[in-house]
Amino acid sequence: MFATDVDGVLTDAGMYYSESGDEWKKFNTRDGMGIKLLQRAGLVTAIVTQERTRLVARRGEKLAIPEVHQGVMDKLSLILEMAARHGLTLEQVAYIGDDVNDLESLRAVGFSAAPADGMPVVCEAVDYVCHKNGGEGAVRELAEMILEAQGSKSQVASRKSHAPGSGKRP
Prior knowledge:
The chain is of the alpha/beta class. It has six helices and eight strands, in the order βββαβαβαβαβαβα. The protein has a six-stranded parallel β-sheet with strand order 5-4-1-6-7-8, with helices on both faces. Strands 2-3 form a two-stranded antiparallel sheet. β2 and β3 form a beta hairpin. α1 packs parallel to α6 (about 140-150). The chain starts with a strand and ends in a 21-residue tail after the last helix. The model is unreliable at about 155-170 (pLDDT under 50).
């Protein structure tokens, strides 16, 4: 299972408000494709966030994420429950979070990660700190890493196939 926080991971941690009271969040389409690639490889995908917005529900629907949980104050209990429901152990769960409310879950799962701009205490606690910031490709980076580790390279373009900027395509 792959589970992710939202604000600061799938988004840039900004909360944008208009004069009329509308709230906006910027999601990265490459992160979305990373989630789709994980789903195609057979991983259960999940969103676990303390926030409760229609925007997150819409993003979860668009990506067909089966486990979208908002307003979650005890993330670890929910992750334990989801894992059990899907016949998984915590060791089979990867989780990416960026702030102190993610620490308990990050310390409990089999593989933990944080975006490059995650809070320092979180970055010190995880197994992997992404090169990309939250909302700027951190989830995609982690998705590719997981797929490569599972031997699903056919679903991920090899990074060795061409040098960036060389103009050559594999």
